[in-house]
Amino acid sequence: MIIPRTIRRMKEKMGHKSGPYAHLFEPYDGDEVVSLDCETTGLDVKNADIISIGAVRVKGNKVLTSERLDIKLKPPKTLTGDSIKIHKIRAVDLEDGIELEEALEQVLAFVGNRPILGYYVNYDIRMLDKFIRPKYGFGLPCKAIELSHVYHDIIKWRMVGGNVDLRFDTISKKLDIPILERHTALGDAITVALMYVRLKYGDPPEVG
């Protein structure tokens, strides 16, 4: 039986309302979001592992690059040649990586109860929840902000009768935001943060 996310979240909140992570379930009323990205060994959540996590805070119209996470984990057994072709991260590059448990603690402390921003952000949240839930008894309760939805909602009225291209590279080009170290967790997190700020506070993107 699949438990709807809202019901599961309510149950988890009740179960942790007096515990050390109760603050994660409190409504957020600030002006920050956390742009987050995970590099993984595959696209199948069930079988993939996380190899790096990048995150940066956004406060209003500012990307706070000094407040960031740049985590490398110890190489998992699922790190194969196919995944290396995409993110260019080899086992040798992860020799100084930290244990997954420490990485999860850092993520929970850094994100807190702020909204999580990302490109295909639900995939990153599901990957983290895959490891967070068995250890802590809950999944990330934060609100999720999908960058491609923000982009689509802003320009859809200008694309009547046409399709909106939601590819990462296209959105970056339309917003005139350079892609920083594509397929690195921190690089993608910062690029998404910059695109989000442009969408929320800058001029509408050109279409055509």
TrEMBL record:
GO molecular function, one term: 3'-5' exonuclease activity
Uppermost EC category: transferase
Keywords (A to Z) from UniProt: Exonuclease, Hydrolase, Nuclease, Nucleotidyltransferase, Transferase
GO cellular component term of the entry, any: cytosol
Enzyme Commission code: 2.7.7.7
Record has Nuclease as a keyword: yes
Domain Exonuclease, chain residue ranges per copy: 32-205
Protein name, per record: DNA polymerase III subunit epsilon
Species of the source: Neptunomonas japonica JAMM 1380
